[in-house]
Amino acid sequence: RYCRLRNWNTLFVCGTDEYGTATETRALEEGLSPQELCDRYHAVHADVYAWFGISFDHFGRTTTPQQTRIAQDIFQRLLARGFLLQDTLEQLRCESCGRYLADRFVEGTCPFCGYAEARGDQCDKCGKLINAVELKNPQCKLCHSTPVVTPTQHLFLDLPKLEGRLEAWLERTWAAGDWTANARHITRTWLRDGLKPRCITRDLAWGTPVPLDGFRDKVFYVWFDAPIGYLSITANYTEQWERWWKNPQQ
Known about the structure:
- This protein is an alpha+beta fold.
- Among the domains are: 107 residues, Rossmann fold (3-Layer(aba) Sandwich), CATH 3.40.50; 59 residues, Methionyl-trna Synthetase, domain 2 (Beta Complex), CATH 2.170.220.10.
- The protein is built from 9 helices and 11 strands.
- A hairpin with a 4-residue loop joins strand 3 and strand 4.
- Helix 2 crosses helix 3 and helix 4 crosses helix 8.
- The two termini are 19 Å apart.
């Protein structure tokens, strides 16, 4: 509102981030399809913002054709420029359900503190992050059978390839003094330990499809997909969306 009052050219977008295991899990609990669940909660969120009088230029969502098109285009550009790797992950697979179990679909005993109801991504008692295959006595959250560790191929962002360029960019931006002390500390810690390849695919049905042979039964990991939502929501608002996101001089 301040920017608008100053007559600055302003775009204010937001939206619901709808893909991922949290949506699949909740949809199963409520007996709905993921799309039905997202339709319901998108309307709830929109009503809440309207009640608060928050005036978005566009309140969108990530389950749109524009999201698929832009996310897949970014993926193809990364692939063409050599910024993606293939590697094998050990994942839990439920033979009864016939599916790999994403972290929220498996529960077991925490390997650190012994809490019996730890999730496949984090223990709510001791707070430590967990790799699902590290759980003791793992159980499928859907059918309660015991899953087995199975290798599966995934795609990764080759972040180590960008480390040198990132460090040079950080030195320039840190010199400008616009970073908080906390943000600097966290970023320095990542660089001190060395960047690691980051997985961008998941063995799920609910998500943006991966447009590459050998991976077409997978979707993009929500943390790769979700930030692109700002671009696609802008694209749903205006065909000139690239002028907002690819205009560093302004």
